[in-house]
Amino acid sequence: MLDRARFDGRRGDVSWHKNVSSIAATGFGLTALCIGARHRWVSPVLSRRALRFFAYHAQQEHGWFYPFLDVKTGKRRWKEISSIDTALLLAGILTARQAFPDDPEIVRLANLIYDRVDFTWMLDGNRLFLSHGWKPETGFLPYRWGTYSEAGILYILAIGSLTHPISPDAWFGWKLPIVHSAGYTYIGGGPLFIQQYSQAWLDLRNRSYIQVPMDDRVVPRINVFENAIVATRAQQALGIDLSQRYRGYSSKVWGITASDSAKGYVAWGGSPDDSRIDGAVVPSASAGSAMLAPDICIPALRAMLLKFGKKIYGRYGFADAFNPTTGWVSRYVIGIDVGITLLSAEDLRTGNVWRWFMNNTEVERALDMIGLVPRSPADGKQTSGEIAEAREGTSGLNAGKRLADEDPGPNIQIGAKHRIPASAFKFKIPIPPQNTKEIKSSDHPN
Known about the structure:
Number of domains: 2
Number of helices: 15
CATH architecture of the largest domain: Alpha/alpha barrel
Helix content: 25-40%
């Protein structure tokens, strides 16, 4: 799958990204093909072709792939081998394995690709934490996935591997940055996508920890799903606070996460004090959290479409970002941002992505090894607020602290079904006439 495309849907040069595939976007794209096949929009043939490409042609080292590849040859285009990008690709591959269980070639190729990944090699001698990547010219990068981040899915795949597993202790070894934003407290330390990417595939609703012996150490245990809900609500509250500085923000036009910007790609929005925030809105921030907090995310997406229409919504969906204060609109849609939008929507609508991915025995094995097991049916009926109150002081924060403020707003059902307004499925979105004076398409060369 291409790293990016033009927002207007036209073919043509996208600067230095021309003919460049992103393996992270391909992980989302393979999952999209599963969704499309379920709706009979596409054939499984497309999934087979992609898996053959990564099984036999894409350049790799010990099973790990470069993040950007030539779409025709599979050769490295830039950068180093990336452990997190490979994990997102594997998530899509393992989703395809379960979405097409009766296709022997897809199953065989998925097994080959996953089993070939040497997770212990990526430890580079460290007992717990995987390296960010490796370069043939200089070796392993000095950075480790040792802080709470989007790497949750990387560690689940590594712990559950049948061929090259790592210790389950790694799951509990991360640093846990506490973020205070707009009256909310949660574990974060990065843009909103770090709360979304892993959970697009990992269904952590209705799961809680059992005690697993770990050398008599006390380890923090966080309700990752609830934490992501709180981080999403904090984003909305941040947008309301920022509306005092930027008139384009409001309770229904909000959301900042890593995206394109008027100054190029920026990993912003992880902190309310981020000086780079300039009034831009990133639709994938709210769209990617629709599976987490539909009661605030669906109205936000609806409001953006109603207010700006075709000026920000094109052939592939929303432009990657836009600035309602200055009128800037990104020229691009970026694969990973379109991907999280689609997967979140499907998780919300049907839960199919969660179901397919969680049917992989390696995933269930990893969750069992870290002691994150399904709760009883009675627990599944509790709301997030009730569960947070019952577990106050046991979520990994200091005693007495909670993952939400005293008035977190409407509770969200985190059982088998979300409480979704019926209007979310009945509302037909009118597209108003384009007014080029208000919002203009950017000609900024990234």
